[in-house]
Design brief:
The chain has 347 residues and is of the alpha/beta class. The chain contains 14 helices and 9 strands. Bound molecules: coproporphyrinogen III.
């Protein structure tokens, strides 16, 4: 099988024959085979076994026919190397043993040591680099999103303690952003050196901020991350997460290639807000997958019709897949995006 480079081509805004597609959380519980593996091992246990983690990464490539793989890992994994004790708890998410609230807590965070603490993840990447016929997207959690777990101690709806530190103790906040920014830069560089072909910075929860707060408290660190990684010749994705439409006009200076959109802005409107520079990725509401197939296709068509208006579009969801999603519908959707976009591009 020939190497499928469509994702890379679209990332750099080159003309493609058909649109590339991949799904956030494409390695996951909607797949019975994955659920079987999860009966034996936790997420963190899978990540510690490079052969198995590589196998899990490849499941959706074989089953769905997507155009990119995303490393099976979690945004919390590198945080262990900073000295943070956490677990990923079933039906909750990341839970931190000792949430980070004080200057002393932040001072205790050590610099990331990839060789010592994350060699298993680098090994998984090397295996995948050898096995895959599609690009491997590696990733890191963005500083705000990681900070929200570290400070709240668990998933939050309000981000009350996170905002309390941000507004009340800005020096602490920026010290934490600096440390997490350093973590992202070092971790991503290692991932690409070990065979990652693109990377995504997941800022899943930063849409909780007003645009002016995002600009002041978060954007400088995001800008620094992409500046310091700008020598890497791979597609760089920033995903500002859910409800991020109002943040898009602030991203002009970020040296990313692709911005991930959620479904609350259309592809056309997202491009207008972002300007010419970026390719865009998105943005089907994952819960549209609960609809009948004809309805799903209508939504996909609308996204594709907008996406192909200019080069630089990657079909994805606006957020991660949920466990109840149907694997059959996902396969049909993937085929539909390929077939419909090929016809539409040719026309
Ligand atoms: O397929 C892929 O996308 C690759 C693997 C991946 C996971 N997490 C595995 C995982 C990726 C890219 C992530 C990123 C991640 N992790 C994000 C950013 C993306 C997003 O959804 O916004 C966030 C916020 C996390 C933190 C996290 N990890 C949460 C909130 C949860 C619980 C949510 C849930 O559905 O239970 C996790 C656990 C997690 N990470 C699961 C998976 C497949 C589900 C539980 C499991 O299978 O063990």
């Amino acid at each position: 099988m020939a190497y499928n480079n469509t994702f890379i081509e679209a990332s750099f805004k080159r003309q493609v024959d058909r649109l590339p597609v991949w799904y956030m959380r494409q390695a996951g519980r909607y797949d019975p085979e994955y659920r079987k593996i999860k009966e034996k091992y936790t997420l963190l246990e899978i990540c510690k076994q490079p052969e198995l983690a590589a196998e899990v990464t490849m499941l959706p490539i074989r089953k769905l026919g997507v155009d990119a793989a995303i490393l099976y890992s979690d945004i919390m994994n590198p945080v262990a190397s900073l000295g943070v004790d956490f677990d990923i708890v079933k039906d909750i998410g990341p839970v931190i043993a000792n949430p980070i609230r004080s200057a002393a807590d932040i001072e205790r965070l050590t610099p990331i040591d990839v060789d010592k603490d994350l060699s298993h993840i680098m090994e998984t990447i090397r295996i995948l680099d050898h096995e895959l016929q599609v690009p491997l997207i590696t990733f890191a959690g963005a500083p705000f999103t990681i900070a929200s777990y570290l400070i709240e101690g668990r998933p939050s709806k309000s981000y009350i303690r996170t905002k309390e530190m941000m507004y009340g103790e800005p020096a602490l906040w920026f010290a934490l952003m600096d440390k997490l920014g350093d973590m992202v830069i070092t971790y991503v560089r290692h991932q690409i050196e070990n065979g990652g072909k693109a990377f995504q910075v997941f800022d899943s929860w930063v849409g909780a901020l007003a645009p002016q707060d995002f600009k002041y408290y978060v954007l400088p660190t995001i800008t620094r991350i992409f500046d310091e990684l700008s020598d890497l010749k791979v597609p760089k994705i920033y995903f500002p997460g859910v409800s991020s439409g109002e943040l898009l006009p602030t991203l002009h200076e970020v040296k990313a290639d692709i911005i991930g959109l959620d479904w609350r802005v259309s592809i056309t409107e997202g491009r207008l807000r972002l300007g010419e520079k970026f390719a865009v990725q998105g943005n089907l509401d994952p819960y549209v997958l609960t609809a009948p197939m004809d309805t799903i296709k209508e939504y996909a068509k609308d996204i594709i019709d907008q996406g192909i208006q200019s080069p630089g579009f990657i079909f994805n969801l606006g957020h991660g897949l949920f466990p109840e999603a149907s694997i059959e519908k996902l396969k049909e959707l993937t085929d539909f995006v390929h077939e419909y976009s090929e016809q539409a591009i040719r026309a």
